Amino acid sequence: MTDVTHFPLQAGGTSSPAPELGAVAFGTVFSDHMVRARYSEQRWHDPAVTRLEPLTLQPHAACLHYGQTVFEGLKAFRQVDGSIAVFRPERHAQRFRASTDQLCMPAVSVQMFCAAVEALVRVDQAWVSAQKNSALYIRPTMIATEPFLGVRPSREYLFFVFACPVTGYYAKGFAPVRIWIESERSRAASGGLGSAKTGANYVASMLAAEKARERGYDQVLWTDSSSHTRVEEVGTMNVFVRLRDRVVTPKLTGTLLDGVTRDCVIQTLKDWRIPIEERELTVEELVAAGRNGDLLEVFGTGTGAVISPVSHLGWQQGELVVGTGEAGELSNRLFDHLSRVQRGESPDTHHWLKSVV
């Protein structure tokens, strides 16, 4: 079989009652099951839903040495009528395919990706809480498993999906974050893997983020690798800037992740007839706007946090307060709107929700 769309449930299929979420830290508690399929001899084998369990790898498995790993992150939400829906699974499937293409890994079709996600949500549906601002975060992943040492694409892979119940991404919730403008280190370079959702891009961001925390900031604002003059991303999120009556976000150039929440925000702003520009944005323009009063809001967008407002921007020569230093009117409005759509409280005019249970 070259593709699979059915993941049968193996023994041990009963899901335990989900714990009370409270303020559970993001990514620390996991549901009972996982979905998996093995790839070898140019086809997929053994698709199944199993209990969540450790993976067995040889110490010379290709993923441990040459970085052939990709992943996605999407969410399932309990709807106001008690049903469960996954938010934009097809779009995440398409991005997963784009990532595997860049890393010379086998394709997972949109149908196979969505079938795997839906199979996991159905068996672990008790873990999808009705608590406000909660969701089941789902992590489809692929790793190279062929046991060999040699720089070439692996011939064997494991595709698996697991999930964790979550509330807010940041411990401080929707409170604005302080951001350091990075001018030395780079997350990604032109012609590289910046647009792929692969572990290499995230480990490349960690040192700069740690240095920013030592300075009293929560994350970094990434700039281009060649001149460090153009704004790219904020932390692990796409970035938006409100300049008076318009909003600007960096255009996709191959070094940025094509964020699903980014796409939702752009479409929502168009629906609201708020001017949105996808274009080059320089640090100089950003700082000048902050000094002359045109910079009203800066916020990041991503699946984990949805919207993350920024209160301060710091750099080697100084610091500026963004707007009033509080979450802005547009940030609040976008977060509320997208959250309501995800929970089925507002009309899903763009058909972003896919009903599962």
Descriptive key words:
357 residues; eight-stranded antiparallel sheet
Order of helices and strands: EEHEEEHHEEEHEEEEHEHEEEHE
Briefly note the structural class of the backbone: alpha+beta
Give a quick account of the main beta sheet: strands, pairing sense, barrel closure: 8 strands, antiparallel
Query: Terminal Cα separation, in Å?
Result: 28 Å
Provide the low-confidence segments as ranges: none
- Give the count of helical stretches: 7
Q: Percent range for helical residues?
A: 10-25%
Query: Mean of residue pLDDT?
Result: 94
Shape assignment: globular
Portion of residues in beta strands equals: 25-35%
Rg from C-alpha positions?
A: 21 Å
Q: Please give the number of β-strands.
A: 17
Structure, described:
The structure is a single chain. With 357 residues, the protein is of the alpha+beta class. It has seven helices and 17 strands. The strands form two sheets. Strands 1, 2, 3, 4, 5, 6, 7 and 17 form an eight-stranded antiparallel β-sheet that branches. A six-stranded mixed barrel has the order 8-9-10-11-14-15, surrounded by four helices. A hairpin with a 2-residue loop joins strand 15 (306-315) and strand 16 (318-321). 43% of the residues are buried.
Describe the SSE topology.
Blueprint: E1 33-40, E2 43-51, H1 63-66, E3 69-71, E4 74-78, E5 84-87, H2 89-102, H3 110-123, E6 135-144, E7 157-166, E8 177-181, H4 199-214, E9 219-223, E10 231-234, E11 237-243, E12 246-249, H5 260-271, E13 276-278, H6 283-292, E14 295-302, E15 306-315, E16 318-321, H7 329-342, E17 353-355
Parallel strand pairs: 8-9, 8-15, 12-13
Antiparallel strand pairs: 1-2, 1-7, 3-6, 4-5, 4-6, 5-17, 6-7, 9-10, 10-11, 11-12, 11-14, 14-15, 15-16
